[in-house]
Amino acid sequence: MTQPPLTPPPAIPPPGSGVAPRRLPDVGPMTTIPSFYRVLLRGQLTKGRMVGLAALGFVALLLAFVGRNSTESDAVDILAGYGISLMIPLAALLLATPMIGNLVEDRLLVYLWLKPVPRWHLAVAAVAAVVTVLVPVLLLPLALSALLMGLPSMIVPVIASTLLGSFAYGAAFVFVGSRFSIGLWLGLLYVVLWEQTLSRLTDGMGRLSIRSYLASNLARGTDVRVDLADRSTVAAIVVPIVVGVVATLLTAWTLRTRDID
Amino acid sequence: MPQPPVGAPQPPALSPPLPPLVVSPTALVVVDRVSKWFGDLVAVSDVSFAVEPGVTALLGPNGAGKSTILRMLCGLATPSSGSVHVLGANPRTEPAIAAEIGLAPQQEAVFGFLTARQFVRASAELQGIENADGAAAEVLRTVELDPDDTRRLPTYSKGMRQRVKLAQAIVHQPRVILLDEPLSGLDPRQRLHMVELFHRLGDSGRAVIVSSHVLEEVERFGSNVVVIAKGRLAAQGDFREIRALMDDRPRQLRVTSDKPRLLASGLVSQQNVANLRIAEGELIIDTDDVVAFSRTIATVSKQTGARLFEVRPLDEDLESVFRYLVGR
Fold first, then answer.
1. Looking at CA atoms only, how far is residue B119 from chain A in angstroms?
2. Are B49 and B201 contacting, i.e. CB atoms less than 8 angstroms apart?
3. Chain B window 166-185: which residues touch A at a Cβ cutoff of 8 Å?
4. Does B91 lie in the same domain as B37?
5. Is A15–B205 a contact, with Cβ atoms under 8 angstroms apart?
6. Are B111 and A13 a contacting pair at CB < 8 A?
7. Region B204-212 average pLDDT
C-alpha cells in the first residue's frame, strides 16, 4: 500500500514564547457547530430513548382521546397538566441529560473537546441537537391532542409553549448532565419536587418554575384558568429564552473548566 | 495555586532537590514541576521533562500516572501545581493549540454509530481541514485501513480501532502527537508497522510521545525515554542508558544444586555476591552484576563439583524494575 508523504511541519518557535505556533485553521462556528451537531444528533437517537419519547406522546394522545368529549376546562387541564407540566420536561430530561453526560461517562468527550474550537460551539450544538429532536416529538402529539379535544385555538399557544419549553428545559438539562454525573436524577428531582410541588406554594416559587411561563403561554389560547399561568406575555416568552441562553453558557463554562476523562 | 488536600499524602520529597529544568530551544513540550492529585490520591508528583522532536517513550507500570500526564499535556486535565506548555502555549487555557496536538486515548470506546471514515472526517472537519473527507481517506490508508469500509466502528477488532484512533489523532498533521498505549491489541506485524509509522512521524519533525507499560518496548520506540513510576519521574534520557540501568541493577537469583551448602561455601567469598542464604535447600543470592555472577557460579560449580540444576532470577517482573529505577 502506498504511504502518503508526511508534510514536514513549519519552523518551531521557542518554548514558552507564547507565539502562535503556526497559522491556525479557520474553524469558525459555521463549520464546527454543524459538525458537532451531526455527531451529537446521531448519538442521541438510541432505541431506548425513542421508545421513551414515543410512550410520552402516546400517553398524550390517549388522554386526549379519553377526554375528547369533555368540557373545555377539562381539555385545557389535560394539555397543561400533562403536556406542559410533565411531557415537555420529562422528554427534555430523557434526551438532554445524556447529551454530554453520556459522552463523559463513555469517555468519548475527548474526541470532541480536543479541537481548536471555543467550548461554546460544542454547547450550542448540543442544545440544538436536543431541540431538533424535542420539537417534532412533542409538537405532533400535543397539537393533535388539542385538535382531538376540539381546541383549535390552542394550536398556536401549544406551538409557542413547545418551542420555548424545548429550549429552556433542553438547555437546562444539557447543563445538568454535563456538570453532574447524577444529572438525570437531579433533573427528575427538579421536575417532580420543584415544578410539580414547590412551585405551587408561593408566587415567588412559581416564578422560579419554567412550567409557569409555559403555562402562561398556553393560557393565551383560552379563557379557562390555567394553573400557574400568572406571568405577563413578555415574561412568558423572554424568561424561557433567558433560561435557555444562560444554561447554554453554563454548559460552555463547564466544558471549559472541568477535567475531561 | 491549588494546595494539596489536607491530610492527603504529600508528594514525596525528592532528594537531592530537582535542579531547574533546562529546556532546549527546540523542545516542543515542556512539563515543569507538575503535580496532580485527585482528592487524597497523588497521581503525579513533581514531574519535569522536556520533549524534542522525535519519538519519546513514556514508560511506567499501570497506574503510574502516564495517562494523567498525557491528559495534562493536551489540556484535558489541569495540573494541581506546576505548568505544562506545548509549543509555548498552555493547552488548558488556549484551545487553539489543539490544532497542534493529536491524541489517541487509551480507552477503547468509540462512537458506535460512525464508520471509521466518518469518525476521522468529523475530526478533520473540527480541525478546519478543507478537504476533510480526502484527508480522512488518506490517513486511513496510512494506518493500513480501508477508507471505503462501510462497517461501523464497534464491528472492528481492537487492533483496527487502535489504528482508527491513531488516524483521527494525526489527520490534521499536528506537531505534537500523544499516543496512550497505542500498541495494545495489535498483532506483531501491525506493531512493527505502527512503530515504523511513529518513527516516520518523529523523523518529520514532530514530537511523538508514546506511552507504554511494557518496559521492554523501550528499544522499539527509539532513543528518548521518560520512565514514570508511582507518579514520579523515575528515569529520563537515552534508552541505552536506561537499558544499562535495567541490566546493571541488583538482582536476586535462586540457584538449585545437588550440593547447595558446598556451592554456598564457594560463592560466599566472591566479589559479585552481595548476599547469600539457603532456604529450603536452595540458594538465594543477591548480586550487583548478574553477568559477572554467571561466570563466577560456573567456575565455583566446577571447582566444588556441585551440579547446577537451575539459576533463575526472582525479580524480573516489571514492577521490580520500575521500583529499582524509582529508588535509585
1. 9
2. no
3. 168, 172-173, 175
4. yes
5. no
6. no
7. 92
CA distance B167 to B124: 10
- Residue B42 grid coordinates: 497523588
* Any domain includes B285: yes
The amino acid occupying position B157 is S
Full domain range(s) for residue B261: 249-327
User: What b/e string do you get for B237-249 counting C-beta neighbours within 10 Å, with b at 16 or more?
Assistant: eebeebeebbeeb
* In-domain check, residue B22: no
> B117 at the A interface (CB within 8 A)?
no
Whether the CB of B139 is below 8 Å from some CB of chain A: the reply is yes
User: Does residue B34 contact residue B47 with C-beta atoms inside 8 Å?
Assistant: yes
Provide the whole-model pTM.
0.80
pLDDT tens readout for residues B276-293? 999 888 999 988 887 788
Predicted-assembly ipTM surpassing the 0.90 threshold:
no
Burial degree of A70 (CB within 10 A; 0-12, 13-18, 19+): middle
Q: Which residues of A touch B122 (CB under 8 A)?
A: 35, 38-39
- Residues A117 and A115: their CA atoms lie apart, in Å, by 5
Q: Report the domain count for chain B.
A: 2
Q: What is the mean predicted confidence (pLDDT) over A225-229? A: 77
pLDDT of residue B179: 95
d(CA B47, CA A25): 32
Neighbouring CB atoms inside 10 A of A234's CB total 8
